[in-house]
């Protein structure tokens, strides 16, 4: 009889399972370190601690577990390695502990963010932009499709690689604290327009880049291979990574590979004669996205070899730092294993380069997690956490208890220190402000809304809600991912209304306030070891408030979110051993620390972040 929102307009039944008691399982937190040694606290005690250095188990003689103290001698071999890490696990009769990761610089603990490098991806902050919709830096390549059937929203609007380079030069990304750029697909797409299969059968151009005609050539409307090389070099000069959005599930039917090797592609019809288009689950590995997008059959080794080589082309020739992989669940495991093996054998090993791969899968945590591992990809976007969080942050419909439970669930599936992407939104769903800003109409078709009416921010409280969401993704484990425009509070219904041209000037006071908050949050995150590598513990969770703490070697960050319409005074009991000599408030709220109790005031529809040391 109990139900809860699924975050995307429907409801799921709730079954309550009892038995597990988190209050009795071990909790590991970092305590101190000295030359060659690390000490950790293990609350509730543990039967055994398992310590790994670079996936090798540290000998038990170097691991001393006594009561609630764990002492680890760092292996001497770490001294010959510039960067490595320790990972610690423990358990007792009640269950498993949280896992802890400790980055090392040779045989010493890295305890300040300045010791990290740009390929320490736990410290990444991603910024995702659709190239055509971001910045027009070269008007000479503006070539929208000349077809009256293509609406302006579905046509090329002039953004290009030169525009991204211009914003790099201006320091736009660095000011936000961003150190990794994810750019939409840049490979050659068709020149003309195509009609999508489902009703109402609108016509589209390939402005988005997801219709590959040539997988190794930059679309001339976005720039050139030479310009892309310069962009990567410029980003590296700014100590930033560049990830390319790579399409491996399909090609456009104009692609010469489809013409030369039709046997490498799945049939557009199922065995029982149905049209195999957008049958997302039942025909997950064979379905076509549209009539002009042949699905690649990766049961063919020749197809796997050809398309993994296409991906390697960008990494090897242009020193690309990694990929965002489109439609990950629609591509077979054989492809991901082959690609990762090639990256390790040809790039990571011989060139000592970390190549980060993050995938896109809509589905259960079981399905999402099945693609993550040492032989597969590094991470995926945590859509389940976002869909749980979105109704909580955008309205009063759900409780923060749901967010706390979702955080715990993600930690169970992906670990407490995963490289999962925590999003503000993306190009395949309505903007957060569509819901939080009062535009959403219950029961409406979110895609059609963007075609049929003007979507705008009708409730200015939506901007405050968006700031809270930014504060959340910047302070939880995983990698924060900013969708372009969310740093100023752009709105929009579903594709293509959520892909409007970026604005850099003429911001309203509310938009400027969001950008100011995001800038401050991004810079806090990139300089805070507790927010990058700290252990995480939820301290309070209620309908309208959520409080959690992240701690790393004598420094802690307490995050308090308040969704209610009035200010709240919170009294928080801090975990034993939390340093409290100084307390700095992000929003300069009134705070006090006494006898391991933190008292603070959080304004309505706002957040506070307290840095303790």
Give, in spatial order, the strands making up the sheet with the most strands: 22-21-20-19-14-13-24-23
Major sheet description = 8 strands, parallel
Gap between N and C termini, in Å? 47 Å
Helix proportion range: 10-25%
Approximate shape: globular
Portion of residues in beta strands equals 15-25%
Stretches where pLDDT is under 50 for at least 5 consecutive residues are: none
Mean pLDDT: 96
DSSP strand count: 32
Helical run tally? 14
Structural class: alpha+beta
Radius of gyration: 24 Å
In words, what does this structure look like?
This protein is of the alpha+beta class and 613 residues long. It contains 14 helices and 32 strands. Strand 16 (194-195) and strand 17 form a beta hairpin. Helix 1 (161-170) packs parallel to helix 3 (225-237) and helix 12 (461-473) packs parallel to helix 13 (509-526). The longest helix is centred in the middle third of the chain and has 19 residues, at 333-351. The radius of gyration is 24 Å and the shape is globular. The model has no long low-confidence stretch (mean pLDDT 96).
């Amino acid at each position: 009889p109990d139900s809860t929102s699924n975050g995307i307009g429907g409801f799921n039944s709730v079954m309550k399972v009892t038995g597990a008691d988190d209050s009795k399982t071990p909790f590991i937190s970092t305590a101190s370190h000295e030359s060659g040694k690390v000490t950790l606290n293990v609350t509730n005690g543990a039967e055994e601690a398992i310590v790994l250095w670079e996936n090798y188990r540290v000998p038990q003689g170097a691991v001393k577990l006594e009561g609630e103290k764990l002492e680890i001698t760092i292996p001497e071999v770490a001294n010959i390695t510039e960067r490595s890490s320790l990972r610690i696990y423990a358990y007792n009769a009640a269950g498993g502990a949280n896992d802890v990761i400790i980055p090392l610089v040779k045989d010493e603990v890295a305890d300040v963010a300045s010791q990290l490098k740009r390929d320490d991806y736990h410290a990444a902050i991603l910024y995702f932009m659709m190239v055509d919709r971001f910045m027009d830096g070269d008007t000479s390549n503006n070539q929208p499709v000349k077809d009256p059937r293509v609406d302006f929203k579905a046509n090329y609007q002039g953004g290009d690689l030169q525009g991204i380079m211009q914003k790099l030069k201006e320091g736009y990304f660095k000011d936000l604290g961003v150190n990794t750029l994810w750019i939409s697909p840049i490979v050659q797409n068709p020149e003309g327009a195509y009609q999508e299969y489902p009703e109402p059968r609108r016509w589209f151009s390939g402005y988005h880049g997801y219709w590959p005609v040539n997988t190794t050539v930059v679309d001339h409307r976005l720039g050139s291979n030479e310009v892309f090389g310069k962009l990567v070099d410029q980003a590296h000069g700014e100590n930033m990574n560049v990830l390319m959005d790579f399409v491996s599930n399909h090609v456009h039917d104009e692609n010469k590979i489809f013409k030369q090797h039709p046997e490498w592609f799945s049939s557009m019809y199922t065995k029982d004669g149905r049209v195999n288009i957008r049958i997302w689950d039942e025909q997950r590995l064979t379905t076509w996205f549209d009539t002009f997008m042949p699905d690649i059959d990766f049961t063919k080794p020749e197809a796997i070899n050809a398309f993994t080589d296409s991906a390697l082309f960008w990494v090897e020739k242009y020193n690309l730092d990694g990929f965002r992989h489109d439609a990950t669940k629609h591509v077979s495991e054989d492809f991901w294993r082959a690609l990762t093996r090639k990256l390790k054998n040809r790039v990571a090993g011989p060139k000592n380069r970390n190549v980060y791969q993050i995938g896109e899968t809509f589905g259960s945590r079981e399905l999402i997690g099945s693609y993550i591992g040492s032989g597969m990809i590094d991470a995926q976007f945590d859509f389940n956490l976002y869909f749980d969080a979105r109704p909580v942050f955008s309205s009063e419909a759900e409780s923060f208890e749901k967010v706390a439970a979702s955080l715990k669930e993600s930690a169970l599936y992906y670990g407490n220190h995963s490289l999962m992407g925590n999003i503000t939104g993306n190009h395949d769903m309505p903007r957060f402000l569509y819901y939080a800003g009062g535009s959403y109409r219950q029961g409406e078709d979110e895609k059609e809304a963007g075609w049929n009416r003007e979507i705008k921010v009708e409730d200015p409280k939506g901007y405050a809600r968006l700031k809270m969401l930014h504060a959340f993704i910047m302070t939880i484990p995983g990698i924060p991912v900013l969708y372009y425009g969310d740093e100023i509070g752009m709105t929009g219904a579903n594709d293509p209304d959520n892909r409007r041209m970026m604005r850099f000037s003429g911001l309203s006071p509310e938009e400027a306030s969001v950008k100011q908050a995001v800038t401050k949050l991004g810079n806090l995150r990139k300089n805070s070891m507790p927010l990058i590598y700290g252990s995480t513990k939820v301290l309070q969770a209620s309908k309208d408030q959520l409080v959690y703490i992240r701690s790393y070697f004598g420094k802690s960050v307490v995050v308090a979110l308040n969704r209610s319409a009035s200010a709240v005074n919170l009294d928080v009991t801090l975990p034993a051993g939390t340093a409290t000599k100084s307390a700095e408030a992000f929003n300069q709220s009134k705070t006090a620390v006494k006898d391991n109790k933190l008292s603070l005031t959080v304004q309505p529809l706002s957040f506070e972040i307290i840095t303790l040391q």
